[in-house]
Amino acid sequence: MKNQLTLLFVLISTSFVWSQNSCSKFYPFSEGVTSQITTYNKKGDVAAIVNYKVTNVSSNGSAETATMFSTIEDHKGERIAETTYDVTCRDNVVSIDFKSMMNPQIFEQFGEMKYDISGTNIDLPNDLSVGQSLPDADMKMKIDMGGINMNMNVAMKDRNVVGKESVTTPAGTFECFVITYTSEVKMGMNQTGTAKQWIAEGVGMVKQEDYNNKGKVMSSSLLTSFSK
């Protein structure tokens, strides 16, 4: 369970990496764009590496949709999960599929069990400004385990743009908006904390810190490579 929750937060923390085109200021889409986010535990050791690639971009009227393929590797570089999800850009807002908040190993674990999944996508508009509030996002999953039902809820709440800062990572130095939110995972047990993201124009998320309910850093993530 602990490892599954860790991977859930890895995916939540790293569902935001792209390049730039005319659709979106922060998270546009170009086929072949690759990026890498490295996540560290509270001791500063590598916990996971997430590699992203935009595999397809299509248009439907005023909307553009990018298909994103990501792989998750452990600290030894061994692949432990992979997932594909869509991201849509419409009316100057990028909307990331709420399924990106789910650890793909969860689906493998449940196999052919019946389940229902619903949620609200992660939205980010072009017109970010300090003091702005952003919409909540969530993912709800109900699993039928042969007469026993299990519920899983993942949520990002109270999203706010709180400032602008310059951030240096192994991939470069970026001018960023800073976004904070409350994270919640409910799956037999409840795990609540807060997070801070640094978002750069034309790149996406370049840094994130995740805190427990006492404000202590429990994990961090950095953009370690980016290629258009």
CATH class category:
Mainly Beta
Which CATH architecture?
A: Beta Barrel
Distance between the termini: 36 Å
What profile does the largest beta sheet have? 14 strands, antiparallel
* Order of SSEs: HEEEEEHEEEEEEEEE
Given the helix and strand composition, which structural class is it? mainly beta
The stretches of 5 or more residues where confidence is low (pLDDT under 50) are: 1-10, 16-21
Q: Label the overall shape.
A: globular
Under CATH, the topology is which?
YmcC-like fold
Averaged pLDDT: 83
What is the total domain count?
1
Q: Rg to the nearest angstrom?
A: 17 Å
Helix share, percent: under 10%
> If helices are DSSP runs of H or I spanning 4 or more residues, what is the number of helices?
2
Strand content: over 45%
**SS elements, strand count:** 14
Describe this structure in words.
This protein has 228 residues and is mainly beta. The longest helix is centred in the N-terminal third of the chain and has 12 residues, at 2-13. Strands 1, 2, 3, 4, 5, 6, 7, 8, 9, 10, 11, 12, 13 and 14 form a 14-stranded antiparallel β-sheet that branches. It has one domain: YmcC-like fold (Beta Barrel). It is 8% helix and 60% strand. It has 2 helices and 14 strands.
